[in-house]
TrEMBL record:
Function: Regulates also the sphingolipid metabolism. Mediator of sterol homeostasis involved in sterol uptake, trafficking and distribution into membranes.
Protein name: Protein ARV
Segments crossing the lipid bilayer: 96-117, 129-148
Localisation per UniProt entry: Endoplasmic reticulum membrane
Gene Ontology cellular component list: cortical endoplasmic reticulum; endoplasmic reticulum membrane; Golgi apparatus
Keyword Transmembrane helix: yes
Record-stated family: Belongs to the ARV1 family.
Source organism, top-level taxon: Eukaryota
Pfam entry (one): Arv1
A biological process from GO: sphingolipid metabolic process
Transcription keyword on record: no
Length: 202
């Protein structure tokens, strides 16, 4: 668990002094509440995600025990691939399945590129933490449904791509605990790695 304000390790996020009543733990390093999002409703957390706040990504990546199993990660990967496939002009089930498989492979290649770049820089990280950070920060793909509604206009698709890139960068930066520039370098390498291999094999 980590403080969402300064990123330092904390032993706990809150104490339950009385049953049903909790007291948020104060970080000793920065003197602020370690994780204010513990008391936030889902709607407020989602709004902070839309605002691309680093604190909410620290909360999601390090302080929430979600998607810890391989099965959970595969479900999120599959759903993300379906969102990517929603813009494809497929009219048959085999076409849809092939498109979903291709998109799964592209996501895995992007993750592999980030991991290789981080490992080459001497940064050790949990593969599960990194993969779920990348998958969750791509929630902007939900905008694909709006793109379909807007008849595939290039403007909303461009904004959506920039939004996903920004969230990926923040999530990778917080997960790997690196500077913004280094996170952008990792993403650039992963994008080239993904593009090169997908053009060869996919």
């Amino acid at each position: 668990m980590k403080c969402v304000e300064c990123g330092k390790e904390v032993p706990k996020l809150y104490e339950e002094l009385v049953k049903g009543n909790i007291a948020l733990f104060q970080c000793e390093a920065c003197g602020k509440v370690a994780d204010k999002y513990v008391e936030y409703e889902f709607t407020l957390v989602f709004l902070n995600l839309i605002l691309c706040k680093s604190q909410v990504y620290r909360h999601i990546i390090f302080n929430i025990d979600w998607s810890t199993s391989t099965y959970d990660i595969l479900k999120i990967l599959f759903f993300s691939s379906i969102l990517d496939s929603s813009l494809a002009s497929c009219e048959s089930l085999p076409c849809w399945l092939l498109q979903i498989i291709k998109n799964c492979a592209v996501i895995i290649l992007f993750f592999t590129g980030v991991y290789i770049a981080a490992y080459s820089s001497g940064i050790k990280c949990s593969k599960m933490f990194l993969l779920r950070a990348i998958l969750f920060s791509s929630f902007g793909k939900l905008g694909n449904f709006m793109i379909i509604t807007w008849k595939y206009s290039s403007l909303p698709s461009t904004f959506m791509a920039l939004f996903i890139y920004l969230n990926n960068m923040i999530a990778i930066r917080e997960c790997l605990e690196v500077h913004t520039i280094k996170a952008e370098i990792f993403i650039s390498f992963a994008w080239m790695f993904k593009t090169l291999l997908s053009s060869w094999f996919i």
